[in-house]
Amino acid sequence: MYILLNGEFKQKNEVSIDFEDRGYQFGDGVYEVIRVYNGSYFAMKEHMERFVRSAKEIKIVLMHSAEELTGMLNELIQKNQVHDGAVYMQVTRGVTGRKHLFPGKDVTPQIVAYPIPCSKPVKEQEKGIKLYLMEDIRWLRCDIKSLNLLGNVLAKQEAYENKAYEALLHRGEHITEGSSSNFYGVKNGTIYTHPANHLILNGVTRMKVADLCRKNGLTLAEEMLKVDGLKTLDEAFITSTTSEVIPVTEIDSMKVGKGVPGPVTRELQRLFEEMIHNEEKVIG
Ligand code: PMP
Questions:
Q1: Domain topology for 120-278
Q2: pLDDT tens-digit readout, 113-156
């Protein structure tokens, strides 16, 4: 497998990460996961924009432009012959003695990208999933795709231990998002999701779903849902790069609506699939 390390392609066994890398010691960096369908990236522009923004928000100065990075990532999937899968990319503030303060300008950010396996969660997309509700204990800059994922990791694990596919996080009475996905509730034909502010990650899939809603006459309201309101939802679903659109049929031990995937969710799944194929055609 070829790995992109600071602009150079290396074999996996040639790459080693320094134990004083700030990503390793502080989680001091940001990342992206980009889906590859049929040999092409999906929503590369949006992922690259978010990556550049995340880096800027934590004051990491990237050594490559978005265009250069995109070119290198394209070469990466060609070299590795990735047909369907994903690419993980991360940048850290670099390697230096362990101190909280930023290092000087002589320390350069370390950027790594490599393919990771990824396939459609077909069963979940068909049947729907269960969520486990819990308090959102993360920091107040969830809009940054930070390497520091402890709050997310702990939530995902707790959800798993409670036989749920994903966590549903809430800050007090307000629902925010999943541990690695955005959440939506449907009520009387309107789709509700948390506004894209500092309390959630503005998912690339979320942006694509918002586009689909606009173009297809579906109403999407960026309004906070309340924990109390979950029991009155007709439908619910989550989205993410790797999940795409997955229906939610159960939250804790409560059925959502009729307890089966609803028509609005099904329509969005269909539109999303169509969009994947259309983007392929544009690129191809
Ligand atoms: N929220 C969180 C906390 C996430 O980790 C993810 C996955 N990256 C998402 C939302 C969904 O984002 P995207 O659609 O860009 O994968």
A1: D-amino Acid Aminotransferase; Chain A, domain 2 (3.20.10)
A2: 999 999 999 999 999 999 999 999 999 999 999 999 999 999 99
CATH fold of the domain at 1-115: D-amino Acid Aminotransferase; Chain A, domain 1 (3.30.470)
Output the CA 106–ligand 1 centroid distance in Å: 33
Q: Which ligand 1 atom minimizes the distance to the CA of 241?
A: 16
Name the residue at shortest CA distance from atom 13 of ligand 1: 203
Domain residue extents for the chain:
1-115, 120-278
Q: What is the pLDDT of residue 247?
A: 99
Instruction: Output the 3-class SS for the chain.
Output: CEEEECCEEEEHHHCCCCCCEHHHHHCCEEEEEEEEECCEECCHHHHHHHHHHHHHHCCCCCCCCHHHHHHHHHHHHHHCCCCCEEEEEEEECCECCCCCCCCCCCCCCEEEEEEECCCCCHHHHHHCEEEEEEECCCCCCCCCCECCCHHHHHHHHHHHHCCCCEEEEEECCEEEEECCCEEEEEECCEEEECCCCCCCCCCHHHHHHHHHHHHCCCEEEECCCEHHHHHHCCEEEEEECCCEEEEEEEECCEECCCCCCCHHHHHHHHHHHHHHHHHHHHHC
The CA 156 to ligand 1 mean position distance, Å, reads: 13
Tens-digit pLDDT profile for residues 39-61 = 999 999 999 999 999 999 999 99
Give the residue whose CA is nearest to atom 4 of ligand 1.
Answer: 180
Query: Would you call 145 a catalytic residue per the annotation?
Result: yes
Q: What pLDDT score does 281 carry?
A: 65
pLDDT over 70 at 183, yes or no: yes
Q: Region 227-246: what's the mean pLDDT?
A: 98
220 CA distance to ligand 1 middle (Å): 18
What percentage of the chain carries pLDDT values higher than 70? 98
